Each structure stands twice: as C-alpha cells, then as structure tokens.
Amino acid sequence: MGSKLNIEELKHLIADYITGQSDEQEKALVENALKESAELREFYNEMKKTLEFVSTVKPGDPPEQYWNTLLPRIHQRIDAEQAKKFSWDKISAVWKVLVPVAAVILIVLIYYLVKPSNTQITKDEQKNEKINKDTSKHEDENRKEEKAPEKKQEEKIVKEDNRHQENPLKKFRKRDQVKEENIAKEENKINEMNTQKEPKNEDVAVMDIEETSVFSMGEGAGLDEETESELKSLSDNDKDALLEELQNSNLN
Amino acid sequence: MTGNTRNINNDSELVRQFKNGDIKGYNEIVRKYQQQVYRVIRKMVLDHDEADDITQEVFIKVYSALKDFREESNLFTWLYRIATNYSLNHIRKIKIKSTVSMEIVTEQIETQDKPGDELLDEETRRRILEEAIETLPAQQRAVFNMRYYDQLPYAEIADILGKSVGGIKANYFHAVKKIGEYVKQKMEH
Question: What is the pTM of this model?
C-alpha cells in the first residue's frame, strides 16, 4: 500500500486503527495522515466516540446454564426430526404396496382403453348388420324391380277385376283367359323349340311304331280294358284319324 | 480469529470421528463452537429466543451436512457461513416485524431516557446500539459483527459472504459511520 491514499481511502482505515486491527503499514499511514489533516482528525474523533459507545455495550449473553442445555436440546430436535422422517418411511412402506397396485390398475385401464370395448364390438356388429341390411335391401329392391312387371300385370288384372267387379263371372273368365294365354305362350315356345329340332323321317317312323304299339300293346300302353276294346273295334281309317288327332294334340 | 481457540487439526479429527459414526465428534464440535455461533446469530437478530432457535437450527444443519463436509475451508468458517446465512434469512423474513418492534423500542427510549451519554444505563445503551444495528442493511450488519466483534480478517469475511475484500472493507466503513450517526442523533435529542 503506497502513501498516495486520498482522504476517503484513509477514512476507511480509521476504524481498524482505533480497534487495533490495522497492520503496521496501515498504522503508519493513518498516524502520518492524522498529523497532516484536520478533516481526518475530526473524522477520527467521531469514529472513536462511536466505537467507544459500542464497546461499552456488552454482548447480550445468555446465563451460563444455557450452554449446558443447548446440546441436549439440539439432540432432542434431531431425534424428533428423525422420528418424523421414520414416520415418512412408514408412509413410504404403505406406498410400496400402493404403487404396484396402482400400476396394475393403470395397466388394466390402459388395456381396456386400447382394446376395442364390447360397446365398440357391438357398434361394429351393428355397422355390419346395417351393411347387410342395406345389401339385402338392395337385393330386395332388385328382386322387386325384377318382379315389378309381373306384379304390374297382376295389379293390372286386379284393376281390371275391380273394374268388372260387378260381374264376377267375367273376372274368372278373364283370369282363365290370361292363364290360357300364358299356357299358349309356353306351348308356342316349346313348339318353336321342337320346330328347331325338326324330327327326321326316321324319327317319325319310330314315333309311328310307338304310336302303333299303343293299339297293339293294350294294357301295356296304360289303357283300360274298355278303351282297349274300343280301340280294337275301330276300323283302320278311324285308327289313322285318331292317331293323327293324337299327334296333333301332342304337337300343340 | 483473535480470541477464539480454534484448532483446525483438532477440527479435522472431530469431523473424521463423526464421519466414522462416533457422535462424540459432533458433540465436541457443538460444545466448542456453540458460544461463537450463538453470538454471531444474536448480534444479527438481537433477540435471545430467536438466536437460540437459529443456533439449534444451525447445529441440526451441521449434523445432517457434516458427513458431506470436504474441509475445503476450515470448520469454523463453514459454521460461521451457515450461521450468518441463517441469520440473514431470518432478518429478511421478519423485516416488517423488526421495523414495528424497533419503533416501539424507540418510543420507549424517547419517553424514558434523558439525553446525555454518561447518564444512559447499560440496557439503554444496548437498545440504542441494537436500533442502530437494525438500521443497517443485512450484509453491512453481518460485516460489522464479523469485523468488530469477531475480528475476522477481511479475506475471511469476503469468503463467508461470497464478496470481494474491497466491498467488505467499504461495508464495514459505512456500517461504523451509520451507527455513529444514529448514536449521535440519539444523544443530541
């Protein structure tokens, strides 16, 4: 520390100088400065008064007995805190049981949350059922559409029936007529098919033989005795006529 | 520290004894340093009951932390740091309460005591000084106590408070100056 300290820096050394805490160098600096500076001497006097006042006040010490009781009281508090900590250990022991239980519950919960629930399955089933219903509905509609012309025809008939409701006999006639028309249509179809498969002369000959066998076989042809005897009694011309008629009826 | 019978080597032995599971090491540390620790705290908080409570807390802290003490600083510096920090925290917590109690004390002094340094009894002097110390910021208060009463080197105070030596010297200068101004003001009224 050099001797170039200003007055403020020297003031910082005064307190230690008064209490005897300065080293030799600081002590010399202060003593020289006090000789030279009136301001510093005034400050020194103020500080000395203050520190003398402080020194007259003894630290507030407790009675001597206090020092003998401090250590046991500290140990009491340490024991109390350790007991408190022990109770925490007890609680933590409870937690040792609770934590695994809670973990299992959590896993189960997560499992049920992740896994599709019964409700979800039911919903899925409901969806499938709905899809099936829709599909079947569409199929029904298609069927209906397919059946629509027939239904329309029936409805038309019903309408016509209603129209001729005053004459039930006409209604039945008409229905029979329609049926007969349908039968006729089917027969036409069969005829067309047969026409496409025009029988050859040989086939016709075979057929003649078969037809002829009807007259010759009698019971073998499934005719009763009366019919058989009638057939036998027929002349050749009548037989030919009958056969022709039968052929025509089969073709038609 | 002048006046303290610190034996660092003995402290190390006590610490080692405690770390080895012998409670006698801890007990010896408490007996050895209880008065210094209490006085540090008492000068900071100024009330015996509070000082007693904080002293116990400090040594309980020492009990739990001593096993981790690495002896990078000497044991008393470590104790002093704990005591000072506990005291500073306490002062900050009860700042409002202290202000109120100080006003009551001031009122009592003003009504009871006559001016004149020679006429003041010791109790009144103590009250005035405590009031003066209470006006100081917490750090200045700590520095004043450490330097004036415990005569710690500036370097050690700086180490305890984690401040620079220059800053600690300035704190001490301002603390003494403020106490002087307060006492002078009280004496003049």
Answer: 0.55
